[in-house]
Amino acid sequence: MQATKKSDAVTITVTVKADARLSSALETEVDTIHTDDGFQFSISADTISDARARSNTVLRSLIAAHNAGLAIGAWE
Fold it and tell me: Which of 4, 8, 11, 66 has the greatest number of CB atoms lying within 10 Å of its CB?
């Protein structure tokens, strides 16, 4: 198997085990699929650097949504 280069196209798939309502925070970023205990999303990009940047944006959105949910008592 050859080593991946920074210029290679890539797809990242993430499965999140959490309240599926969190996936609504990602509506403008990625398509999500609801699972039995959370949700899943994939990020595709032409380069690893682009995928990394997009994944950082998506993860920051999830963190912000989670923190907002905590602040209003949605996850209790």
Answer: 66
pLDDT of residue 17: 93
What digits encode the pLDDT tens for the residues 17-66? 998 889 988 988 899 999 999 999 999 999 999 999 999 999 999 999 99
Q: Where are the beta strands (DSSP E) in 1-76?
A: 10-16, 32-35, 38-45
3 assigned to some structural domain: no
* Domains held by the chain: number: 1
Neighbours of 41 (CB within 10 A): 19
Domain that holds residue 31: 10-72
Give the C-alpha separation, 51 to 57, whole Å. Answer: 10
| Closest to 61 measured CA to CA, from 28, 39, 38 | 28
Residue 4 is assigned to a structural domain of this protein: no
pTM of the entire predicted model = 0.81
